[in-house]
Design a protein that fits this description.
Layout: E1 2-5, H1 14-31, E2 38-39, E3 42-43, E4 53-57, E5 67-73, H2 79-83, E6 98-106, H3 113-133, E7 138-144, H4 147-153, E8 158-160, E9 165-167, E10 170-178, H5 181-190, E11 198-199, H6 206-212
Amino acid sequence: MIFIANAENRWQFEDDLTEMHRQRKSVFVDRAGWKLNVVSDLEIDGYDRQDTMYLLAKDVANGSLLASVRLLSTLRPHLMSDLFGQSFPAGVPRGPNVWEVSRFCTTPKIQDRATRLSLLWQVICGVMETSLVYGIDQVIFAANRALLPLAMTCGWEARILGSTSRDGDDDVTAVAAAVTPYGLRLVRERHSVPAPVIRFPAGENTDRVHRHSRNGTGDVPQLLPGPEVCSGLRASPQTHNP
């Protein structure tokens, strides 16, 4: 399941978010050698803001963090605009209905490819479900050489935004993906994700999430309170050779 952690409920996920930053440091800095900001053994940058939303993959609510991803509004500074903006003559897609997806990371404890890919598909479904709940119809992200073919053929409607750029020994390509109920259904069917994956903590803000939901097609779950209800998909190095 994928837990949504945002400004309204972040206090419930403090330990998970600390572990997320620790995993990002281990994966991106220690293993991949990226030159990123590290604070007290945690990888944290200027895009980890109060308004940033995180999707956290866990088997159970009180279980260990398995994977994570970051969602950013494109109305404020984000990686694509700041780092890749000059690569797009027409500009990076922006707008109230466009999110950027970045820092996809699986725990370094998971070594087998099948489990990492299963988490990737679940996280993509979580990104799409969360986007539909919040009225987002497009996501943009930077995909490296290994992630690009997976992202382009997973089931959603994706398009390459500009030319591929070198990033050390790797290639990075900007991608935009449409978020639709039909695309979500295709991703689920293609990768054996049988049911909605996102969960949101029950509480005073649950009704607000209900009002955003487009559940008429049955593709986005009603985020009802209950025992289980507590989003450039840039690949982590474990995904470099999926």
